[in-house]
Specification:
The complex is a heterodimer of chains A (66) and B (721). Chain A has 66 residues and is mostly helical. Chain A has two helices and no strands. Chain A has helices at 3-12, 18-65. The model of chain A has no long low-confidence stretch (mean pLDDT 90). In chain B, the strands form three sheets. Chain B has a six-stranded antiparallel beta sheet with strand order 2-1-4-5-6-7, covered by helices on one side. Chain B has a six-stranded mixed beta sheet with strand order 8-11-12-3-13-14, with helices on both faces. The chains are: A mainly alpha (66), B alpha/beta (721).
Chain lengths: 66, 721
Amino acid sequence: MSYKEEVRDKIQGSAERTEERIKLWEEVHAALDHGGVEQVSSMLAERVESLKCEFEEAIRKLQEML
Amino acid sequence: MLHLKHLEVEGFRGFPKKSDPFEFTAPAVLLHGGNHQGKSSILNAIEWCLYGDQCVGQKSGIRERVGGWVIVNRNVPKASVKLVIDTDKGVTTINRAEVKGKGRGERTIEVELPDGSVKKGVDAEKEITRLAGLSFKDFATTVYQHQETIHAILVQTPSERSDAIDRLLGLSDYRNVLDGIKRSKIADVQKELAEQFYSFQALVEQTVKIRQDELEHKKEKAVDSGLDANQLNEHKLLEVASDVRNQIGKFASEMAITAAPISSPANWKGAQTFTAEATNEIERLWSESADVKEQSQLNSKRTKADTIKTNCEQQKQAVATAEVEVQKFEQSHGNQEMIETEIRATQSTIAAVDDEIRQVSPKAKLVQEGIALLEATAPAYGTDVCPLCGKTAPNLLNHLKKEWTEKIEWQVHDLNTRWSKLAERKVELEGLKAKHELLTVDAAEAKEQLKASVDKAAEFLGKELTDRDDPIAMLGKEIGEIDDRIIKIEDAIKDKRETLDKISKSLNRLNLLYEVLEFEERISGIQKIEDTTEYKEQNEIRDKVAALVADVEKVDSTVRECMSEQAKNKMKAAAGAIDDYFQKIVGNPAIQELSVEIEEDTRTGGNSYTFRDQNGEELNPVLSQGDLNALALSMFLGLVKAYSHPIGFIMMDDPSQSLGTTQKKRLVEVMDEVCEDRNLIVSTMDSELQEFLQSGLTKAKTIYEFSNWDPKTGPNVIKVV
């Protein structure tokens, strides 16, 4: 069994957010295959960064309400 | 089981030229030669031919392969490797090639199967995978012992040594995933968002406090304006608005003007519009009031009368000043007639003196006038031309001057002096005459302007004025009458103004009530900010980030778990063989049993390996370089033994890096044991090991001696059977 399947099987057995975590794992190992450690790092960083931008926009609008 | 038959390389790494075929059919193949002679290139070529790109770069899990590790020799454009293998189904030939500097399209792979069929590209890769029956990672762990494996275990720090063992166990993918997750720092972003959120909450609390202070201030002002502290509400605001509306209606009625409709506010928010409409209506009613209109007209008329009166006064003063100037002049110099009479008399006297001069010297006037004329015309005509007849007379001017000086001047000197004084007086008189004329004109102009002002006064007063009238006094009287009327009107509109002041005060209270209610609503809005879409949205985003971080942490912990399990399973499966090989190679009586303890290294995220002896004592601090080398080889060979796979050979690259003579001999004994099951390919620069291999390996051997490597031709390889 490859490491991809091994990790996937273990996540499959987890109690919550199984689907999302399996999807995330597939994206992580695809990133590793495609561009190595840096690709994994940037893929995750970009994802959280886009949420950060949305959050900052919401906070900016809330500040305008004060 | 997959066995190697032979290999040919061309343009691959240390082989710029096409090599002779390397035969691998013997149970042991020894590649011997100095450093940088192309031995490792042969092992690399076998690996690359079977696994292609998987063994290049970071994904290979081999550190020396990251960056700068090239396939194509720098002196040739293309690398190609031909590998002939023997499997249960027969002989298969693999041809893999790569052109320098080109993309994936210039990498070719071709497999010729035992039945003569040929597969290319992706199909060929699939066929090789099927034939090898082993992943690249397992190949790198249990078939090919890289130099790096031993080197890293020998020279790195404990944590890096653990990393090297992880990689030796084929766990590099796990380590790389963990490394990528760690570098993404997504948990830091979650903390950052939490901090921003807490700052925002603090800002909300601070803003509410400021707004409440401002509200208290507004309430105080409202109470100061006469409102009851308990009445600062919408009901009171609407009541005040209604009162204002009634007051305006009553005011309009008193003024006998029809009031424009003003809509009452439906709620407190309509107060601003109501205030604007009421203010406009008040201004309209005020401006349309008869008294106010008359007051405005009278003020305008008074301003006009005052302007005309001031103008008349200024013009009258100007006439008086001009006449005084004329009088003073005539007192000093006489009037116009007297000055003209004196001018005429002076002119007559000058003519008489001229006659006397002519009588004394007939030529005198002629010469005098000739000199004056020549001096005046000299710049244009010179001094030698007669200005009367135009004829040239040399030195005419000088001649006349000489004539005047020597013959005439002494005769007419006194008369000339007298003539000059008379001429000066005449000029003076003519100046006085001009000055008198100027003063007279100024006086006349002042009178004209006074007359224009008087005409304006007449027009304003509506009657003709004669010299007997005093327009200034008449205008003064008119202004007095206007002032009296203005005073009477002001008395009359005083009550109306007081009514307006009352309405204004009511409007002011209305505004204060509005401000109080507006602040209350703003504070309420801030206090209810948690109900807004934006607030809910940021909560959702934070939840999403938290979920992502939790997911990543779960992936991270799962990878760690799997990696740890893999390490433990592999070590457990190979433990007996590792211990056995370690004892055999090291031969240290103090170490009768080797066991390994695997824990998570919380600092690096990888595994931490602790080696212990039969008493549970930690061995890591007491193991020599040779022991560590033996440990690395024992782990590799232990894994080879523990995991059965379809590859019928193992490759060892420079295995004796820090081994002593005895340990090398023992290693060869172990290798001979391994050779029972699988063919052995060993690359070494160590001549002592080479000798031990030649004499100690009990299986048939093929030996290749590498020497005289040249950048353009590659190594000189001699096959020794």
